[in-house]
UniProtKB/TrEMBL annotation:
<dbReference type="GO" id="GO:0046872">
    <property type="term" value="F:metal ion binding"/>
</dbReference>
<keyword id="KW-0418">Kinase</keyword>
<dbReference type="InterPro" id="IPR043129">
    <property type="entry name" value="ATPase_NBD"/>
</dbReference>
<dbReference type="GO" id="GO:0045127">
    <property type="term" value="F:N-acetylglucosamine kinase activity"/>
</dbReference>
<keyword id="KW-0479">Metal-binding</keyword>
<protein>
    <recommendedName>
        <fullName>N-acetylglucosamine kinase</fullName>
        <ecNumber>2.7.1.59</ecNumber>
    </recommendedName>
</protein>
<keyword id="KW-0119">Carbohydrate metabolism</keyword>
<dbReference type="GO" id="GO:0005524">
    <property type="term" value="F:ATP binding"/>
</dbReference>
<keyword id="KW-0067">ATP-binding</keyword>
<dbReference type="Pfam" id="PF00480">
    <property type="entry name" value="ROK"/>
</dbReference>
<keyword id="KW-0808">Transferase</keyword>
<keyword id="KW-0547">Nucleotide-binding</keyword>
<keyword id="KW-0862">Zinc</keyword>
<dbReference type="InterPro" id="IPR000600">
    <property type="entry name" value="ROK"/>
</dbReference>
Length: 304
């Protein structure tokens, strides 16, 4: 039995996993962001609630484990940032610990139980507040030892002009320290940034989408530019990885017409031609981080 955790900046959610088809969510507790002892006690308390001794625990975290140092990069939870968190938790809890990035866990969940079932190579893309992703090949997460594979949201590759007719696009500064990353335009905040640049209007992404769906001219222009900007780097990612399905999660994945537009643009730009949708809505709608962490933990337990 594995206990999986989805560690967010606001809440910690737990789940019991006995098999791939038997994953049961537990309750949630507030995340102690600045107190590592309290963070450990929160995990310990959730484990104790089960009344059982697990074989190990698996964590989905909005951060990245450096594969060389095993230190965690996690900006939104200071008490675990820059720690060798796996080793620290193993010492505190006396259990084997597996840690994975939340986008990697999303990809793992989709490959195992979602839209990626039956596909050998699955690229899970996140279009939420920002942009993320994870890569699964032959049922195994490429980042099993930690690392940055799947992070298509970063790198200075955004086109300097986009849309029909083309319009100049600034190289927006990204939180990663670079300029012109997909993350600066591809998520909800990026959509809002584009709308501001194109029309000097401050609108929430939900309102831009609503206006677009009603045929409003300015919103239609923004979405034309958005799809043009995002489709090319996603097509390149698919060419490089050989993915045959791209489940999409995050808030923008709920806008099916947008996914259809993106899918059409991506399939027109890749080498391999598909006569079926390639960029699709994810199917694990509830706690994919929890499911993905559970699947990783179960696989690790089987391997050991």
């Amino acid at each position: 039995m594995i206990i999986s955790f989805d560690i967010g900046g606001t809440a910690i959610k737990g789940g019991i996993a006995r098999s791939e088809t038997d994953i049961v969510p537990l309750g949630r507790r507030p995340t102690p962001r600045d107190d590592f002892a309290a963070f450990v006690e929160t995990l310990r308390g959730i484990i104790a609630e089960t009344g059982e001794q697990p074989n190990g625990i698996a964590l989905s975290i909005a951060g990245v484990v450096d594969p060389d140092t095993q230190r965690l990069i996690c900006a939104n939870i200071p008490c675990i940032h820059d720690r060798t968190l796996g080793a620290d938790l193993e010492a505190e809890l006396g259990l084997p610990v597996l840690i994975a990035n939340d986008a990697d866990c999303f990809a793992m969940a989709e490959a195992g139980l979602g839209a990626g079932r039956g596909h050998r190579i699955v690229f899970g893309a996140i279009l939420g507040t920002g942009v993320g992703g994870g890569l699964v090949a032959d049922g195994r997460l490429v980042n099993e030892a930690g690392g940055f594979a799947g992070e298509w949201g970063h790198g200075p590759i955004i086109a300097s002009a986009a849309g029909n007719p083309p319009v100049a696009i600034p190289a927006y500064a990204c939180g990663c320290g670079q300029k012109g990353c997909v993350d600066t335009v591809g998520g909800a905040r990026g959509l809002e940034r584009l709308h501001k640049t194109l029309h000097d209007l401050d609108l929430a992404s939900e309102e831009i989408i609503a206006q677009w769906r009603h045929g409003e001219e300015k919103a239609t222009r923004t979405l034309d530019v958005y799809v043009d900007l995002v489709a090319s780097p996603l097509a390149l990612t698919i060419n490089i990885t050989g993915a045959t399905i791209v489940p999409v999660g995050g808030g923008l994945s709920n806008v099916q017409p947008l996914l259809a537009e993106l899918d059409h643009a991506v399939r027109a730009r890749i080498l391999r031609k598909f006569d079926r949708p390639l960029v699709v809505r994810s199917e694990c709608r509830i706690e994919p981080g929890l499911i993905g962490a559970a699947l990783l933990g179960l696989k690790a337990g089987t391997a050991s």
